[in-house]
Amino acid sequence: MKTVMQFIFTMMVTLIFSMAAAIEPAPAANLPCEALVCLTGAVHMQSGGTGCMGPMQAFFSIRIFDPVTGYNEAATAAARATFLNSCISPPNEWADIDVMKTYGTAFDGP
After folding, report:
1. Distance from the CA of 97 to the CA of which of 71, 87, 88, 90 falls in 20 to 30 A?
2. Residue-range domain boundaries for the chain
3. Kind and range of the H or E run holding 65
4. What does the angle CA 93 – CA 98 – CA 100 come to, to the nearest 5 degrees?
5. CB-based burial of residue 65 (10 Å sphere; 0-12 exposed, 13-18 middle, 19+ buried)?
6. pLDDT, tens only, 54-106
7. In 3D, which of 81, 62, 85 has the Cα closest to residue 16?
8. Three-state DSSP class for 106?
9. 52 CB-near residues (< 8 Å, 6+ apart)
């Protein structure tokens, strides 16, 4: 039974991402990099101002839900890591690690 539920969950997540990709326009190429810079600043108690609202919203809007247990922290963190890893030139090699340790599983942002 657990395997069937895992399969259904995987299919639902795949379907959701496929639908989102078909409905929403592709994000700006630099959005993951902007989010990474803004979130790195937030980790170190610095604000990027209103210019960071969009990139941070894009990061925190990535949430994965399990139909049985609700909010899935591990799947959310994995999806957010994929988003940040799509940044072609990160500000430094540790930025995504700091951001993911602090905000990877958080339901809402700072």
Report:
1. 71
2. 29-103
3. strand 65-66
4. 105
5. middle
6. 999 999 999 999 999 999 999 999 999 999 989 887 766 677 788 999 999 99
7. 62
8. coil
9. 34, 38, 41, 42
